[in-house]
Here is the input.
Amino acid sequence: MELARFAGVPTFMRLPHLTPGNERYNDVELGLIGVPWDGGTTNRAGARHGPRQLRDASTMIRAMNPVTGIAPFAKVNCADLGDVAPNPVDIMDTLTRVETFLAAMKAQSICPLTVGGDHLVSLPVLRALGKEEPLGLVQFDSHTDLFDSYFGGSKYTHGTPFRRAVEEGLVDPKRFVQVGIRGTAYDTTDVEWGLEQGIRIIRIEELYERGTSHVMAEVREILGKRPSYCTFDIDFIDPTYAPGTGTPEIGGPNSYQAQQVIRQLRGVNLVGADLVEVSPPFDPTGGTAWLGASLLFELMGVLSEAIEKRRG
Here is the structure.
């Protein structure tokens, strides 16, 4: 209430921007970072511009969630830790840069909330967080991202990150659940491979038939009490509400249902999360970014509770 929200340098949620070396950096418990990179995109690029627009949109966020009663900024020390500097012409170099950045955060016991960028950015985050113990994973998405390769052998695209994560032992496939899968398909090899590994795939039809509360109860049971990660692709939401994304699929949840699925992750031992695939060029109104910023705040709520519980 001391500075108008349209004033000042935009940061995520108007939080302080801290970098290693700042005396306050070591006190951070929940760090928001941007990964402005879409080198894994196979068709409509633009998600590299997501973090910047999400920062601007997030200046509209206030301090408390009146439904859950969570005030994340009061629960834990939060900060905007800046962007991972990407290499826009080298996929493998960028993956290494993201992993290194996140590994440094983990070494400081900072829980990351990563803002993409395309969905390939989740892979290096999981490499940083899941090396010591495979993580549980809940993925809100319209696509499985379980393909093996694209274009004659390219293993690293936004359609392959979670196959790589399972293969590398970063994610426990028996504690991996995907929610919202839909849309036309090349074939069924991604789904077949996922089911063979033990991944629970919940299509959008099942989500609607059973209802959000029933499905999310199963999600919490699958994840259990061990460390888990949440990845949220904005295309989980119907393009009526989130048109600013590279691979939209009709028939998805509305913005309220998106809030519900995140809120119902309360109690899960989350060690990190990300929100990806916001692509500003496909939504000149900025509405998709505002929705994304609002969901980041919901994620901050469940993450802050998990941090507080681990802190004791």
Residues 287-311 form the longest helix (25 residues). The two ends are 31 Å apart (CA to CA).
